[in-house]
Amino acid sequence: MPDLVTTDKLCETCRQVSPFTVSTVIPMPDGCDEFRYRHLTLEALQQSAKSCPLCHMIARELNRGDEPIDTAGTEQRVILYCDVYPTTEYGPRHVGLVIIQLSDSNRHAYLQAFAETGSEAASSGDVDGRPLHQHADSDESFHQISKWVNDCMQHHPACASVPLASGSLANEFPSRLLDVGADESSTTCILVNRADARGEYVALSYCWGPLAQQLRTLNSNLVDHMTSINLNDMPLTLRQAVVATRKLGQRYLWIDALCIVQDDGVDWKREAPQMGLIYQNAYCTLAAAGSSTSTGGLFHRRDSSAAAVIKIDYHPPSRKESTRSWYLTPQANKFQYILRESAWNSRGWVLQERNLARRIVLFAAGQTFFECIHHSIGEDGLTYYDHSEKRYGSAEMRLGHDWIWCGIVRDYTARHLTYGDDKLFAIEGMAKNLAARTGKRFCAGLCVSALPMHVMWLSAVGGMSRPVWKDGTQVKRAPSWSWAALEGPVMWEGWVSKAKTACQLEIIGDISGLAPDDVRVRDARLSFQGLTVEVERSLQTVAAEGLTSNVQVGGMGYTLGFHSHTACFVLRARSGNLLGWAVFDKGRDDSGPFIAAVVSQNSVMGTPDKSGTGSYNVVILKHMAQVGSERHYIRVGAGELTHLSPVEFHEQRLGIL
Fold first, then answer.
1. What does the alpha-carbon distance between residue 304 and residue 329 come to, in Å, rounded to a whole number?
2. Domain Heterokaryon incompatibility spans what residues (predicted)?
């Protein structure tokens, strides 16, 4: 344990810090009691920090903020409190984090509390935090992982039953699996067909990295791999995944590079749409969250000397003398930060791998985490609440499935995909999962029953680009009205979720699915009937024209959120009058003329009519062809019409390709 400081070196104020004092009830005038410990004033803390190690630690953590603390003429006091309020006055404290706050300030810092496993502070429930294991692949570490998994299997019903697209609760195996055997000393494994496997299997989620680093199953070595695979030929992440599978007492492991024939297009197209179910059905998923390539491995070396640790006597209220100790140290290896900075979590495929896996073990650089639908917990004993991805598609979503899908797509399109033709494959499992839970149908990445909302996607960062296929060619991947037609992150503005539909919008034919190799999906056509108006795009962006204060957003008098967006342009009528704004999908690349097709109205503006009162959400269209009596257009952008009087709208029926 690094730089251990004992209680006898602490000041009197710090010696009183305990799981009980940081959750002391302080009656407040408004009747809302607070649980906290009043430490020194900031001025006194800075003096005490010269001799007291805990005061020094508190002062140092508070000063990690972006702005220096102004101490001139203030009597700010340091407040310590725990992250979980006790349920009863005398019950377990369950302290995992000690939060440091300056009174009359938003400045916060965090110390992690932990106790040795088996100590009274731990077994009593007063201290939830635990010290990290020295090695990620130790027997102790895998004992903890197995405990997490078994606890989930026994006590989390939502994680046990997973509805599939068929409506059944199947436990089908993937087409192929690695049989790793039970002998932990064995240096080989074997690729087997589904018919030869029994029981459960583990799945691996990881970053491939350079192709030259990969061991892959190809047509040329398929027979060899079904005879024997030498673990020493595997990159480190794959090899350690075999080790982890054996340590968990499992026999079968699914790894995409080895279980899909990588140079067989037919095999890949058959297996890729099933990947969501593969992770969903797995006993658990192993995630190489701390590695950016397949050579980085699952198990990372822990630096046990990185930070100081304060040892404090543990005094239960029922005893006069201390019974062993508990510890405080600066919080590190935060779950949210690790995921945000992880190259693994930036992969497009990982969104559905992480979301659909019932249980996932994340081997990060600093510690190991476990995540399921029920909760996320760290090796440090702390429970984390940032596992919203695990609730996409779950029965607990409260914001509505249609809006949740917008969040999924927003997250997904901001991630990295090596190949453009993976775009819809890598999220198909998410759509199937949501469809199984709700009965909704999806086409080309949009929910069929929520087209007026979902068609209002916006380019999030500027002009988008055409997708590039594995062979380097640019091929149509989806209809223009789908976000999947182009490369780049997209988003939805919140007001469209509450807007009232103002048109008839439907997909022609009984078409559903996401697969880009399905020509019916790729060429799906929208039928639109509603109000349209001819519009002209300004030569300059909204910001360049200096009109941000004059352009309303969502029917409200807000400053335009896209004021610095390089693809957000002012819309004007042919007369030159200001109409509103639009984000063009490919920036300046598309030239007019354009029409704005009214999709929905923002309810805060009252009831609109053809005379042009109200605020409209619109898609921007460009004419492409005349087919019989119907004009066909492509989508080139979306935005809002906010200045509508006088504007001459036309009722029109048209097709959007």
1. 12
2. 201-353
Q: Shortest CA distance to 204 belongs to which of 178, 238, 234, 247?
A: 238
Q: Side chain identity at 549, as an amino acid letter? A: S
CB 246 within 8 A of CB 253: no
Counting beta carbons within 10 angstroms of the beta carbon of residue 88, is it exposed (0 to 12), middle (13 to 18) or buried (19 or more)?
exposed
d(Cα 95, Cα 634) in Å, to the nearest integer? Answer: 57
User: What would you measure as the largest C-alpha separation in the chain, in angstroms?
Assistant: 92
Report residue 12: phi and psi, to 5°.
-65, -35
- Which value, in Å, is the radius of gyration of the alpha carbons in the chain? 29
- CA proximity to 362, closest of 392, 329, 386, 393: 386
pLDDT above 90: percentage of residues in the chain:
44
Residue 606: which pLDDT band, with cuts at 50, 70 and 90? very low
How is the chain split into domains, by residue range? 4-114, 155-301+335-391, 439-656
Tokens of 583: 């984000």
Beta-strand pair 594-601/616-627 = antiparallel
Q: Amino acid identity, residue 564?
A: S
| Interval 533-590: pLDDT, tens | 999 998 877 766 655 544 544 444 334 454 457 788 889 998 888 898 899 999 888 8
Q: Copy the structure tokens of residue 189.
A: 């494994």
C-alpha to C-alpha distances, 244 to 284, 463, 558, nearest whole angstrom: 11, 44, 53
Residue with token string 């002012």: 570
User: CB-side exposure of 490: number of CA atoms within 13 Å?
Assistant: 29
Q: Is the pTM of this model over 0.90?
A: no
What are the DSSP E strand ranges found in 477-615? Answer: 490-491, 500-501, 504-507, 526-541, 568-572, 578-584, 594-601
The residue count for the chain: 657
Q: Which of 631, 628, 603 is nearest to 615 (CA)?
A: 603
Preceding peptide of 593 cis, ω within 30°? yes
Q: Which of 483, 465, 481, 490 is nearest to 523 (CA)?
A: 481
299-313 pLDDT per residue, tens? 998 876 667 899 998
At residue 29 the predicted structure's pLDDT band, cuts being 50, 70 and 90, is low
What are the beta bridge partners of residue 583? 568, 638
- Rounded Cα gap, residues 446 and 162, in angstroms: 23
